[in-house]
Amino acid sequence: MTVDTYRPRRSVLYIPASNDKALAKIGSLACDAVIFDLEDAVLPADKVPARDKVAGILARPEKRCEMVVRINALASEWGADDLLAVAKAEPDGILLPKIGTPRDILEAGDLLDDNSVPDGVKL
Q1: Does pTM top 0.85 for this prediction?
Q2: Is 34 within the bounds of a domain?
Q3: What's the rounded Cα separation, in Å, for the pair 90 and 77?
Q4: Rounded to a whole number, what is the distance in angstroms from the first to the last CA of the chain?
Q5: Is 101 part of any domain?
Q6: Quick one: which of 44, 72, 96, 107 is 20 to 30 A from 36 by CA?
Q7: Average model confidence (pLDDT) for the chain?
Q8: Does the pLDDT value for residue 4 go beyond 70?
Q9: What residues contact 93, with CB distance under 8 A and at least 6 apart?
Q10: Alpha-carbon gap, residue 18 to 66, rounded angstroms
């Protein structure tokens, strides 16, 4: 990593992707990164609407800090759809939860490659 690409992360804020009140404050947050949590912080009934909210936020042109999305595990019923939906909105990164084996990371990378997600989206 070169000095010009280094981005310090002194403060990182996790936000439940289903919490509308917290999501409304994103533009005013004084933090280095926001991690939208689609996994543990979101009830099963709210997972799909939360994913859509995050994709909408990421699609907006105004981004004040680094934006990362913590998806559901790929083995879950929501994981692959989370990965593809948020990757198309091009967050700064995607956080994979509960990695059990290196294959979990390779599977996510394969899904991104197979769907022509830009290289700027980092795992």
Answers
A1: yes
A2: yes
A3: 22
A4: 16
A5: yes
A6: 107
A7: 88
A8: no
A9: 66, 68, 69, 121, 122, 123
A10: 19
Alpha-carbon torsion, ordered 38, 109, 118, 1, to 10 deg: 100
**CA-wise closest residue to 70 among 36, 104, 119:** 36
Residue 37 clears pLDDT 60, i.e. is over it: yes
Contacts of 115 (CB under 8 A, 6+ apart): 84, 87, 88
Output the domain CATH number for residue 52: 3.20.20.60
pLDDT at 90 over 80: yes
| Domain assignment of residue 53, yes or no | yes
- By C-alpha distance, which of 30, 17, 5 is closest to 68? 17
Query: Could you tell me the residue range of the domain that residue 60 belongs to?
Result: 3-114
Confidence band, pLDDT 50/70/90 cuts, at residue 2: very low
Written as one letter, the residue type at 68 is V
The reply to whether 123 falls in a domain is: no
Q: How many structural domains are present in the chain?
A: 1
